[in-house]
Design goal:
257 residues, 6 strands, single chain, 11 helices
């Protein structure tokens, strides 16, 4: 795995797949950043369902563009068009992530078929986490039930795998990343159990402190409420093995003027 050695000259194109219709090797990029092989990944938040906005963002030099399908008003076609613009207009130099509007199997498939990685909000239980992984992965070996898209990676055109010893489905399973967001006290308390159950398929965890505050009945956007801080510290707590690597892959927002 030498992608990290090319980041200085290629940016995230070092992690692109043989076809831009496929997702980047986002799982590897996240892990390389965690291990210090590359700098932390910097992204722009695309909070509107606008192709024009996405096309401007593509030119601005970030590693990642996060498309917020959860809160932005857009249909499946617009979401897919934005992902394709990010992929093709950047020539693979930006990695698209899409925050899902929910957990449903079909929407997860739409995003992954488009060539993006996924962010799943409000994962609170082991059952929800298992459902997300199943919807996102091909084949029982990877705990998956995802349906193969027959017109997405055409044989001999878009199905060239990164690893030629494995089929396209196995390759793509190891390319697209899954990020889950914890946004409640219940989710924070269940996180260790979630990672024990499906942590091998989850690449990072994001603590959504605003929604955690709201779920606990606190007003406003900010503030150091002791109960909220207790939940954040629980989320940050030590866990063993690979689960610790997932937990320690920290994600967050940066606001500026």
């Amino acid at each position: 795995m030498t992608e990290h050695l090319e980041v200085a000259t290629k940016g995230m194109a070092a992690y692109r797949a043989p076809s831009l219709t496929q997702p980047h090797k986002a799982r590897r990029a996240i892990r390389d950043a965690y291990e210090g092989k590359i700098n932390p990944l910097i992204g722009y938040f695309c909070g509107v369902g606008s192709l024009l906005t996405a096309r401007v963002m593509v030119q601005m030099g970030a590693d990642v563009i996060w498309v917020d399908w959860e809160h932005a008003a857009m249909g499946v076609e617009t979401m897919m068009a934005i992902v394709h613009d990010i992929q093709f207009k950047s020539e693979g130099r930006r990695i698209p992530f899409v925050r899902m509007p929910g957990h449903d199997h079909a929407s997860i498939g739409y995003v992954l078929d488009a060539g993006a990685s996924i962010v799943i909000h409000q994962v609170e239980t082991i059952e929800q986490a298992r459902h997300v992984v199943a919807a996102a992965k091909f084949g029982a070996k990877s705990k998956g039930t995802r349906s193969a898209p027959p017109c997405r990676w055409l044989p001999g055109v878009g199905d060239t795998g990164i690893d030629p010893t494995r089929c396209i489905w196995e390759n793509v399973n190891d390319q697209a990343a899954i990020i889950i967001q914890i946004k409640s006290e219940e989710g924070a308390r269940n996180l260790d159990a979630i990672l024990a159950a499906v942590g091998d398929q989850i690449d990072a965890v994001w603590m959504g402190t605003l929604d955690t505050r709201v779920s606990m009945g606190f007003a406003g956007f900010w503030g150091s409420k002791p109960r909220v801080l207790e939940i954040v510290e629980m989320y940050r707590g030590d866990v063993p093995g690979d689960a610790e690597k997932i937990r320690r892959t920290k994600l967050g927002n940066v606001f500026g003027r």
